[in-house]
Amino acid sequence: xxxxxxxFIIILLVMGLTACGNQAAMKExxxxxxxxxxxxxxxxxxxMNKCLWYDDANVLLVFGxxxxxxxxxxxxxxxxxxxxxxxxxxxxxxxxxxxxxINDQNIGYHNLEKALIYDKNSLEKVDEYKKKIxxxxxxxxxxxEYLAEVRKDGLYITNNVLNDPKxxxxxxxxxxxxxxxxxxxxxxxxxxxxxISKMTVEEVDKILTKGLGEDELASYNAAKESEAKAxxxxxxxxxxxxxxxxxxxxxxYISLSWSEDNAKLVYITNNYSDICILxxxxxxKQTLTGGKDFQxxxxxxxxxxxxxxxxxxxxxxxxLGESNDTIAILNSxxxxxxxxxxxxxxxxxxxxxxxxxxxxxxxxxxxxxxxICYDYLIDKQNIVYNTTDSIVSAGFSSDQNSIFxxxxxxKGKNEHQLYTFKIN
Length: 424
Known about the structure:
Layout: E1 18-19, E2 23-24, E3 26-29, E4 35-40, E5 46-53, E6 58-65, E7 71-78, E8 83-91, E9 99-102, E10 106-110, E11 114-119, E12 125-130, E13 135-140, E14 146-151, E15 154-159, H1 165-176, H2 180-188, H3 193-196, H4 201-209, H5 214-226, E16 243-248, E17 254-258, E18 264-269, E19 274-279, E20 285-289, E21 300-308, E22 314-321, E23 325-331, E24 339-343, E25 345-352, E26 356-363, E27 369-375, E28 380-387, E29 390-396, E30 402-408, E31 416-422
Parallel strand pairs: 3-28
Antiparallel strand pairs: 1-2, 4-31, 5-6, 6-7, 7-8, 9-10, 10-11, 11-12, 13-14, 14-15, 15-16, 17-18, 18-19, 19-20, 21-22, 22-23, 23-24, 25-26, 26-27, 27-28, 29-30, 30-31
Keywords: Signal
Protein name: Prokaryotic membrane lipoprotein lipid attachment site profile
Signal peptide: 1-24
């Protein structure tokens, strides 16, 4: 089952992959396999930040504007027809900590403050979640069933509700001061939730009273006067979202993310030096202490990022060093020795599959960038693409057998080159 995980961009210093115990990983160079190439210009100064190949034909593309702060564009692109649909364009910040979301029904994008979620088939927006005032930031579980909320007094977990018509209508009614029966009437007239959420009270009255006779208009106004405002109504059963605090305030919740089975969370704490694992139900906390439970590599500066691998037990950690940065794979139960993979240059981790870690490598003193897949099950590195352009985004297909890659010329044109190719 395809995960919903955070697609993240991590800066490392890279070259020569080495494994724990100074054993070099096996290397293969199968660069630039048979590919399909498409040119795509998102316009202005937009640069791709994330991608999600969410079904056989379609890729979700997320762009940030380099010249305008917090301006973004979210596009669904069909690889077969080479057509696109803009799902969102406007003020919305994007960076490497953001999540690209997917479950059986929905796709979406989530920064630290807001999530935009769309129906996978119709591409209509089905939810727009904004963090509460008391939240510092939020993080969805892989299938969007749970929402982690970081507050000043700790970490809270909320059951998330998506695609529940009662929940959506109740939320719109409370936010816009509509009656629930008015929303039902608008739905019956062909309006969708996204359109209704942008209306004013006056606009709703105008739509629903258009063409009414004198008696019908009197009945409409009487209904408004007799019914309680939706804002004071009792929420329907099953709608209320209950938050449960599962951890008191830690020094940090850096790189907070979920395991694929939604059972655990992992994060960096204690000033970028330790890893914490937290069980969602039992609230049991486990700390992997740097220098004790795992050794820092030479030239250690700090831990930068962490996340579970698909087996829900191993944790991938990005360690920043003074010259050589390291990716570490740690077993949360201590059942296996840590594995350390060092590089001399810059790494951007693009995606993780059931056996591969895919990243872009910008080697020191090199004019080329490489796209590399590291098989962490058999300790094997495969260079799958070389380019003199900048690699801006890449991801696995939903069946994990192919790769989507986007590059951008280092100078001049803003036209992205989109590639798809099979994994050798």
